[in-house]
Specification:
heterotrimer; A mainly alpha (about 130); B mainly alpha (about 500); C mainly alpha (about 500); B: 20 helices; 2 strands; about 5% strand; C: mainly alpha; two-stranded antiparallel ribbon; 20 helices; globular
């Protein structure tokens, strides 16, 4: 039981991060914290993807048997497994997307702050109601 | 294709009405020309049909087995003849009425009127339920602006109620049609019916769906939209009561009874009994409600509810003569009731009176109108020499004819219903006539022929009154007995 | 048209779209007027290309294009079959009309300095949506969806004020949705080792009982559901539609919503396939229930609104529910047809409604239906268009809405589900209830105001859509396009 848990500790970590992120998004009142939560979810997913690439941990029991996806003579001779590079490439793209999302969100937050002088959601809603919108 | 053209003429007219919205005279000319063209077309179709030609055209196929198609048959022709001939008179009357009252939004009024006539003709000529449904729904929608024409809060509420009832009914009709399609793979009207005795419960439920679907027939307890809709201008009430809307309801019910279920299946499922009870109940209760109603037009509305159920009663007797009576009564009632409404409208325009209790002495200043009203009232009670007598006679004869198959006590009760209804009709219509002619006329000063516009109204209501009598003497003027006979023969062919 | 040339069109639409967006940004530094015309030209050009693509797909079969010449499953593949091509034409057609429409509206609602960036984002949005539609690669779909979404977030916020928080909510929820989608893809990749849709479909065939695949299915469903504003994941949508500039609302409600509902259908039916749905019934059997609840609840919410844009936004939720209701009964041919046909039908009707509403806002600034009194006299054509759009959303014959309702109703009988039939018909009545409020104000009440008819560049697309509401309704009913519908259904079955 514990072994199984430890074996996949990277997955558990990513799950944990995702859930912390989700919690932050739904429970926090501050708009910036919601953004932090979103970033955590994204990071958790990236971690999960990167873990996927590690064929060693997936196929055999031992951890860290696979080498980086660089072809060198000794590795070929010894028949090392190498890490699947595709998820890493995907996640590079994903990180760019996440960064872009964060940028847009931050830009929006700056505008919101200028407009309402606060980032607390309930206060903003209160102000909106006052303005009669 | 001629049937399609007949349906198309009012639609084209409606476009012209929109185009000429800035020129009232041209606009009204368009309406009048279209009325005549439509009527002549329908009459020609009727002639051709009686010559034995089959007239049908498929415009397109919506789905396998469901076509958008028109087919002329005797029963449809009766309805089409009624609508198209009455449209001429109502249009003439409308011109007088709308201009005399300087009503607003007249373009919208004439536009919707033309479209509703198109829908009525479409309903009359449609070959199957889906085509019928499309026109039925269109009719509901285009009559809504007419009902809410006054644009007051009360009129809007009436319009909402009208839409609520009739759109709900439209949904039931669509559901029923599609279930029929799912069962049989077709929705075409066939004289012997298209449904086969199979799942009894399903067929019974389906029948209730159909009855709910034709809520336009204003049977109780789903009648209250009709009196509420009386807020509309009088020609619109005439359209609702005589020309198109409620007639589409009873038309649909007879279609379903005779052409979807078929006489044998209705008998087998004992649905005739349910229909007869529903109709008889409505006939009596509607008349009782009419007695207590002071608003002139609402009283007439209850009278319509009663007469419509009378037609349904005729259909539920399942005998050839009763069916002929029911079919012809659609036309008879149309002419008689339109006379009453046109009179009510003329009185409202000339004297401004809208309550029954205010009508004393009106007959002295508006003799022609009140004479026409008297003829209509006699017709409602089913007394000679008006067409109403023929309708009731046929239905009673039909009851006797079906006596073998119908349990005897029920036969008696049908006759009893007819007699009670006639007596009640007299009770609530005759006092109006008496007080109008024989009581003092304080406060009623204005004359019948105030100006040319009133002439439009008086002429058209006189014509309808004359027709109410003419149809008694010589019903063949609108080819009625011939068509009804053909229809009854094809429905009852063994 | 040369076959090889047509094979380039899907990718050409996406790449030139992105390229055009960058061009606008640069050109905007020198000449702000030109930006609009570049978008207009690009969209027109793309629309023509999409029609040629559809024509090719219908006559010669589907198009498969390998990006950079890399063979699938290693490279990214663009696959265009009947369904894609159809949705592509729909969204490019509405983008085209939306762009024509946006000129005057944007001039009025948006500061001129912002025009280059506005049109850049608009172009990116359209290109992203086209990309979502043509791609045959699940990860590429993610990237292009984010291109479209990020542009949308920014576009919604353009108006400032209340729009900012609407946009921010949309951003958080939208990104969360796409994260779920990404996670789902991760699961699928873990078990299949591929990202190509066709390849994945084949590899998944033996894995339907795998828990990971099932979880992935739910994640993808929820993720794309948020993006497509499927009830109850629609919470961002009414705010976003209400506070976005009119032109943006028009594009969002037609182009973006349709692209994502397409993505949902594509993933569910072309990657997981019907066989999977038959095995993993638990999750899927919830969909009809949710859709039914959505139709009723969203209609009631729409009834309670006085802001016309918000009312239309809830009506969009109802219509998306019609689509999900349709696809939930995948065994029925007509039910699926109804759903697929509604992609076009709803785009036309809702596009028309938002265009008319935008024109009214442009001329009078009125958003509250209680102030609509008397507009029918002053703006007869716009009001007529709005009326037709509403009647068609209600589903009266012979409009497009009726066709949807009709097909779905027949579909419900095909699967013998009378409850679904009742819900569809109830939906009609509820829709009537809330649009009647608008119709009454518009046509049966009067007040003096000095509104006048909208400018031609706004009126023309609006009227055109209104005519299409009826024309397409009749066209579907003539039964001529039944072959085409059949082909669409075959794609996802």
């Amino acid at each position: 039981m514990i072994e199984e848990f430890l074996e996949h500790y990277n997955y558990w970590t990513s799950v944990l991060i995702i859930f912390i992120g989700l919690y932050t998004i739904f429970a926090k009142n501050n708009l910036l914290k919601k953004l932090l939560g979103l970033s955590l979810v994204q990071t958790g997913i990236f971690l999960f993807f990167i873990s996927l690439g590690d064929i060693g941990s997936l196929q055999t029991l031992g951890i860290g048997e696979a080498t980086p996806p660089i072809i060198w003579e000794e590795a070929e001779k010894r028949g090392y497994l190498y890490v699947n590079p595709l998820p890493h490439v995907l996640i590079l793209t994903g990180i760019v997307v996440a960064a872009a999302t964060t940028c847009v969100a931050l830009a929006l937050l700056i505008r919101i702050y200028k407009e309402y002088k606060t980032l607390e959601e309930d206060e903003i809603i209160e102000m909106e109601v006052e303005r009669g919108e | 294709m001629i049937a399609f053209y007949a349906v198309l003429v009012p639609a084209i007219a409606s476009l012209f009405i929109l185009i000429f919205h800035r020129h009232p005279n041209i606009r009204e000319s368009c309406t009048i020309i279209a009325t005549f063209v439509t009527f002549i077309l329908v009459f020609l179709i009727a002639q051709e049909f009686l010559d034995g030609k089959s007239i049908e055209c498929t415009i397109f196929e919506i789905l396998p087995g469901i076509e958008f198609a028109f087919k002329v048959d005797a029963f449809g022709l009766i309805f089409a003849l009624t609508s198209s001939s009455l449209w001429i008179l109502v249009s003439l009357y409308s011109i007088g009425y709308m201009r005399a009252l300087k009503e607003h939004a007249q373009t919208r009024y004439y536009f919707c009127f033309a479209i509703s006539i198109m829908s009525a003709l479409g309903i009359a000529f449609s070959e199957n339920l889906i085509t019928l449904f499309i026109f039925y729904e269109t009719l509901t929608i285009v009559t809504y602006p007419l009902v809410s024409h006054e644009e007051s809060e009360e009129a809007l509420v009436a319009g909402r109620k009208y839409l609520l009832y009739l759109m709900t009914s439209g949904s039931f009709l669509l559901a029923a049609s599609l279930i029929t399609y799912a069962i049989t793979g077709t929705t075409d009207f066939k004289p012997g019916g298209i449904l086969n005795p199979m799942d009894e419960v399903l067929l019974k439920i389906l029948f209730f769906f159909y009855i709910l679907g034709f809520m336009k027939a204003a049977y109780m307890p789903f009648h209250s939209w009709l009196p509420t809709a009386m807020i509309a201008p009088t020609p619109v009430s005439a359209l609702l009561h005589a020309v198109a809307v409620v007639k589409a309801g009873v038309f649909g019910i007879i279609r379903v009874v005779c052409y979807i279920y078929g006489i044998d299946l209705i008998k087998y499922l004992n649905l005739d009994l349910i229909l007869a009870v529903l109709a008889s109940f409505t006939v009596i209760v509607a008349n009782l409600l009419a007695i207590g109603e002071d608003n002139f037009k609402r009283r007439l509305a209850y009278s319509t509810i009663n007469q419509l159920s009378f037609i349904i009663l005729g259909a539920s007797l399942l005998s050839p003569l009763a069916l002929m009576g029911a079919m012809m009564h659609i036309t008879f009632h149309g002419y008689m009731k339109i006379t009453l409404f046109l009179c009510a409208g003329a009185i409202a325009v000339v004297t401004g009176k809208k309550l029954v209790s205010e009508l004393s002495g009106v007959g002295k200043v508006m003799p022609i109108t009140m004479i026409a009203f008297t003829i209509g009232a006699i017709g409602m009670a089913g007394l000679p020499p008006t067409a109403g007598f023929l309708g009731k006679l046929y239905i009673c004869l039909g009851a006797v004819q079906s006596a073998e198959t119908f349990a005897q006590p029920l036969l008696l009760s049908v006759i009893l219903v007819v007699i009670i209804a006639s007596i009640l009709d007299i009770i609530y219509l005759l006092p109006i006539v008496i007080s109008a002619f024989f009581e003092g006329s304080e406060g009623v000063k204005r004359e019948e022929f105030r100006d040319v516009l009133c002439l439009f109204m008086v002429v058209s209501l006189s014509i309808t009154a004359i027709f109410s009598i003419l149809l008694f003497i010589y019903p063949s003027v609108l080819l009625l007995p011939e068509l009804a006979e053909v229809a009854a023969n094809e429905v009852f062919k063994k | 048209m040369n076959d090889i040339a047509v094979h380039q069109f899907p990718v050409l639409i996406v790449t030139t779209g992105v390229f055009s967006a960058l061009t606008i940004l640069v050109v905007g530094l020198f000449n702000r007027k030109l930006c609009y015309y570049i978008v207009l030209f690009t969209t027109t050009f793309h629309f023509v290309l999409s029609i040629l693509t559809l024509n090719h797909v219908l006559t010669k079969g589907r198009i498969q294009y390998w990006l950079g010449g890399w063979r699938p499953p290693w490279g990214i593949e663009y696959v265009v079959d009947e369904l894609n091509a159809y949705v592509l034409v729909v969204i490019l057609f509405l983008s085209f009309l939306g762009i024509v429409y946006s000129k005057r509206s944007v001039e009025k609602e948006i500061d001129e300095r912002k025009h280059p960036t506005f049109y850049t984002l608009m172009q990116l949005l359209i290109a992203g949506c086209c990309g979502v539609v043509v791609t045959g690669d699940v990860f590429n779909l993610f990237v292009l969806a984010e291109v479209a979404s990020l542009s949308t977030y920014a576009l919604v916020a353009v108006a400032g004020g209340r729009a900012l928080r609407a946009s921010y909510n949309y951003l958080i929820l939208g990104s969360l949705g796409i994260c779920f989608y990404l996670l789902g893809i991760g699961f699928l990749y873990a078990v299949t080792g591929t990202l190509n849709m066709i390849d994945m479909k084949i590899l998944l065939q033996n894995l339907y009982y795998n828990k990971m695949v099932q979880v992935a299915f739910v994640l993808v469903l929820v993720g794309l559901g948020i993006k497509a504003a499927v009830f109850p994941l629609h919470t961002w949508q009414p705010d976003a539609y209400t506070y976005a500039p009119s032109a943006v609302t028009l594009i969002m409600s037609t182009v973006v919503a349709k692209a994502f509902i397409y993505a949902l259908i594509r993933l569910v039916f072309s990657v997981f396939t019907i066989d999977f749905l038959k095995i993993y019934v638990d999750a899927w059997s919830l969909i009809p229930v949710i859709s039914a609840v959505a139709i009723v609840v969203a209609s009631i919410l729409a009834y309670r609104q006085n802001d016309i844009k918000r009312m239309l936004a809830y009506s969009s939720v109802v219509n998306i529910a019609y689509i999900t209701l349709g696809i939930s009964y995948f065994t029925s041919h007509w039910s699926l047809s109804g759903a697929l046909v509604n992609i076009l039908n709803h785009a036309i009707a809702k596009g028309c409604a938002f265009a008319a509403v935008g024109a009214i806002i442009y001329k009078t600034g009125i958003k509250d239906i209680r102030n609509y009194a008397g507009l029918a006299k002053k703006m007869p054509y716009t009001s007529a268009a709005l009326l037709i759009a509403m009647l068609s959303l209600i589903g009266l014959p012979p409009s497009v809405g009726f066709v949807t309702k009709f097909y779905l109703a027949i579909g419900s009988l095909e699967v013998q589900n009378y409850l679904m039939l009742a819900i569809i018909l109830l939906g009609t009545l509820l829709t009537l209830a809330y649009f009647l409020k608008v119709i009454e104000e518009l046509y049966f009440k009067h007040s003096e105001n000095n509104a006048e008819e909208a400018p031609l560049s706004m009126l023309a697309p609006t009227m055109f859509l209104a005519i299409l509401c009826l024309a397409f309704g009749v066209y579907w009913l003539t039964g001529i396009p039944l072959d085409f519908v059949e082909k669409l259904v075959t794609v996802i079955r």
